Amino acid sequence: MKRVTEPELMDDAEQARAYHEADFSVAHGERVAIFRQMFPGLEPDGAVLDLGCGSGDVLLRFARAFPRARFTGVDGSQPMLDLAAGELRRHADLQRRVQLCRAILPSSELPQADWQLVMSHSLLHQLHQPQVLWRTIREAAPPGCKVFVADLRRPATAADAARIVAERSAGEPDVLQQDFFNSLCAAFEPAEVCAQLDAAGLAHLCVEPVGDIHLVVYGTMAGAGSGV
Ligand SMILES: C[S@@+](CC[C@H](N)C(=O)[O-])C[C@H]1O[C@@H](n2cnc3c(N)ncnc32)[C@H](O)[C@@H]1O
């Protein structure tokens, strides 16, 4: 099926809350384990940038998993960031190591740091122009920086997308089921992501399907020796 884009920013308060309250415990719960598979032995202990952090569920899972790292979550949606800030207030132990920042990508005002890891979860499919993400990574991530991007991948047909929604989110509110369907239809196929990386000069990053409906992009920014 052809890609069908959806609105980029999730800046409607009701939509943001529905997303925040959804049960992503399986998909998000596996994310740190997938990161560990892609980067065996790596325990981030420096600065980590999360692009499109939303209400912070994945961001805070990484912050808990890597207690020596410092995290900056960026999102363009104030309602999402407000929900993330609320979560942080409930977890005082993380407040010291996690900061949030509003920026709509592409942005010349991203926080600057010697990023050890630039990651992004479920942002790529939202972008009308996927090069926005790859250019942002290319500009922000120094040589040697690890890159980890995870997202949905687009099913072959709209009927497949509907079946996936029915199988996985039948108990969720309608608004969320519709969002999930739209996101599957807006996602990319692995071959499309490879072509995007090629065009961005990031062809050395790896693209891998994960499970039934996700893909990951991972690797090391060129210029500082090490491989994946
Ligand atoms: C599907 S949510 C994912 C949130 C979070 N990473 C997660 O996995 O739970 C995508 C997020 O990307 C944000 N977003 C979309 N386009 C953006 C842009 N151009 N600049 C900044 N944030 C953007 C949305 O506001 C939303 O919070």
Secondary-structure topology with pairs:
Elements: H1 13-21, H2 25-29, H3 31-38, E1 47-51, H4 57-65, E2 70-75, H5 78-90, H6 92-95, E3 98-102, E4 115-121, H7 131-140, E5 146-152, H8 158-169, H9 174-186, H10 190-199, E6 206-210, E7 214-220
Parallel strand pairs: 1-2, 1-4, 2-3, 4-5
Antiparallel strand pairs: 5-7, 6-7
Helix pairs in contact: 8-9
S-adenosylmethionine binds at residues 8-10, 52-54, 57-58, 75-77, 80, 104-105, 121-123, 126-127.
Provide an overview of this structure.
With 228 residues, the chain is of the alpha/beta class. The chain has one domain: Vaccinia Virus protein VP39 (Rossmann fold). It has ten helices and seven strands. The structure holds S-adenosylmethionine (SAM).
Q: Largest sheet, order of strands side by side?
A: 3-2-1-4-5-7-6
Structural category: alpha/beta
Task: State the order of secondary-structure elements, H for helix, E for strand.
Answer: HHHEHEHHEEHEHHHEE
What number of structural domains do the residues give?
1
